[in-house]
């Protein structure tokens, strides 16, 4: 019985050590806010979450700045019908966060429906107390 209690205590302590920090939770929430803004095509939300210096790289090599990123989604040129994020990792380095995940979903680009299956690297920077998307690069899986 003592061994079982010891094992249970070890598992509880191990899982609590691997729990996300407050900052990691804030970054994860920012990723969810980005996902929601992209699905909703909400111009204000997209502008708020993106850093002024945003560089947004697509898997086809297209690079957009903040204005082009926001316009493509808000205008409906790129219309996400679904976004699923899996295998997400978050690494903090000062006021910078590196997020990697797999993104699958359905999108309509310039009227053409399609499916996406991408690996994504997001770079977030804490600016004036808020996590802002500074860079994004996607690649085909």
Automatic annotation (TrEMBL):
SUPFAM superfamilies: NTF2-like. Keywords: Signal. Residues 1-19 form the signal peptide. It comes from the Bacteria. Pfam families: DUF4440. Gene3D superfamilies: 3.10.450.50. The keyword Ribosomal protein does not apply. Residues 27-133 form the DUF4440 domain. This is Nuclear transport factor 2 family protein. It comes from Rhodocytophaga aerolata. The lineage of its organism: Bacteria, Pseudomonadati, Bacteroidota, Cytophagia, Cytophagales.
